[in-house]
Amino acid sequence: MLTLEELTTDYGPIRAVDRVTLEVPEGTVTAVLGANGAGKTSLLRTVCGLVRPTSGHVRMEGEDITRWAVEEIVRFGIAHVPEGRGVITELTVQENLRLGGLWRGRDAMPIREVYELFPRLEERASQPASRLSGGERQMLSIGRALMGRPRALLLDEPSLGLAPVLVAQIMSMVRRLADTLGLAVLLVEQNARSALSIANRGVVLSLGRVVAERDPQQLVADDRLLHAYLGF
Amino acid sequence: MTKFIDLTLNGISTGAIYAAVALALVLIWRSTRIVNFAQGAMLMITTFIASAVINSSGSYVLGFVVALASGLVLGAIVERVAVRPVENAPPLNAVIMTLGLYTLLVAVAGMIWGNTPRSFPAAFSLRGYRVGATNLLFTPNDTFTVLVVIAVAVALAVLFRGTSLGLRMRAAAFAPEVARLLGVRVGRMLTVGWALAAACGAMAGVLVAPSVFLGPNSFDPILIIGFVAAVLGGLDSPPGAVIGGVVLGLALSYVSGYEGSALVPLAALVILVIVLMIRPTGLFSATKERRV
């Protein structure tokens, strides 16, 4: 579904993403792990068009979308939930959600379905998003991305700043979304264990390069690798 | 007492015009974080166009509509051609660009229409309403002005709060990057924002032209007061701009009536300084940071 081929991104003289090749099939979760500065966020920002790659390709269902504008990539079915969640605090919860589905017009996901997934959001529908807690913001951000019925979902550190109970909840939700909606999920995380617990595939990134790509169970068991690249 | 009523009424009608100018500035500030110093020159151009249409067709309504339409077009062109290149540049670039645009438009208007101010027709009678034995300092044309500005303010509120275009525009203004990630074509929203703002300014130009006459520099004082009104209202709040405009209209009307009209510009600047000292974010602003 979503394929990265030799994707490379430079910030001036600094190589943030270095020849990354990945494949995220339909209905699966690929966890991208790495320490701070490993290039995880840059990788996602390159895929969704916020940053231009130096070389390489991003393909979605065979279509080369590498140099498309961000909004066109989104409209092609790739939703990006940015780090720090990116809820628009000046708008209400409901307005944030509606915004996510506007470009889809009538084919947008009914807001009801998002409320069924995240009942907390319905209780707070008419409040400004600035009043939400961290966990609620994460739910809003994911729910908003779903409004446009994407086929691929890019999640940037959804566990950031959340209590362990919430992290587990969010992770199992991501797993369920991949299973029920057939989403191709590219999940970037520092919280390796919780990400690997739901992933089909684990990728370790260091200095922008893929240093390991394995089954999640094998990665979790490989203490030496995790210690070397993730610091525990 | 009659004098107070007169000054109050007069303040409301001039305040409505300041509100329209302030709205134009606020719409642009919200969407592109640019203070449009060329606003006065842009509405001067559209008012000249309206004047030409009214003179040749004899229809005020047609002139008014053409002014609004040409405002929409001019705003969109300015955004596409002049603003787009400075959008991601340092804020000072945009300031210089709008000042340059101001100079350019004033010069062009002078070349085409001459520098001598000319009269501009009013929509309705300029004779004050008669109550008992006295004429109020409020005319049918003032009623028209106030109603038009109220209608536009309500229409903008409905647009921003009640339509999906408005939701997209607000998202693009508050968080451009997130808006793009949600499939909003932000560039297009900015163009629409500038077009709406310029149309709003064009409306203010046609409404105020009968009392200031029409020349390349006629609207500069209105723009300055409109700017003060916008800052008073917080620079990014449309309701704030309307309230700021009316409050300022009233305040300046009292100053002019009780202390003399020569003090009006001074009073406007004193109010600006006081507001910036006491509440630098304006009276209705939601945000805290401010530049330029």
Q: What features would you describe in this structure?
A:
The complex is a heterodimer of chains A (232) and B (292). Chain A is α/β, with parallel strands linked by helices. Chain A is 37% helix and 26% strand. Chain A has 2 domains: 1-77 and 153-232, Rossmann fold (3-Layer(aba) Sandwich); 83-149, no CATH class. The mean pLDDT of chain A is 91. Chain B is an all-alpha fold and 292 residues long. Chain B has a two-stranded antiparallel ribbon with strand order 1-2. Chain B is globular and about 65 Å long. The interface between A and B is medium-sized, with 25 and 18 residues.
Short description:
The complex is a heterodimer of chains A (232) and B (292). By secondary structure, chain A is an alpha/beta fold.
Uncertain runs of chain B: 288-292
- Coarse shape of chain A: globular
Q: What level of helicity do the residues of chain A show?
A: 25-40%
DSSP strand content of chain B: under 5%
> What is the terminal-to-terminal distance of chain B?
43 Å
Query: What is the residue-mean pLDDT of chain B, rounded to a whole number?
Result: 90
* Chains forming the largest contact: A-B, 25 and 18 residues
Q: What is the level 1 CATH name of chain B?
A: Mainly Alpha
Order of helices and strands of chain B: HHHHEEHHHHHHH
Which of globular, elongated, flat, extended, rod-shaped describes the shape of chain B? globular
CATH architectural arrangement of chain B:
Orthogonal Bundle
What is the rounded distance between the termini of chain A?
33 Å
Mean pLDDT of chain A: 91
Number of folding domains of chain B?
Answer: 1
Oligomer: heterodimer
Query: Regarding CATH, which class of the largest domain in chain A?
Result: Alpha Beta
Assign the structural class of chain B, choosing from mainly alpha, mainly beta, alpha/beta, alpha+beta, or little secondary structure. Answer: mainly alpha
Order of helices and strands of chain A: EEEHEEHEHHHHEHEHEEHH
List the helices and strands and how they pair.
The complex is a heterodimer of chains A (232) and B (292).
Chain A: E1 2-11, E2 14-24, E3 29-33, H1 40-47, E4 55-60, E5 63-64, H2 70-75, E6 78-81, H3 93-101, H4 111-117, H5 119-123, H6 134-147, E7 152-156, H7 164-181, E8 184-189, H8 192-196, E9 201-206, E10 209-214, H9 216-221, H10 223-230
Parallel strand pairs in A: 3-8, 3-9, 6-7, 7-8
Antiparallel strand pairs in A: 1-2, 1-4, 4-5, 9-10
Helix pairs in contact in A: 3-6, 4-6
Chain B: H1 2-32, H2 39-57, H3 60-83, H4 91-113, E1 130-131, E2 134-135, H5 140-162, H6 164-174, H7 176-181, H8 186-212, H9 220-232, H10 238-259, H11 264-278
Antiparallel strand pairs in B: 1-2
Helix pairs in contact in B: 1-5, 1-8, 1-9, 1-10, 2-3, 2-4, 2-8, 3-8, 5-6, 6-8, 9-10, 9-11, 10-11
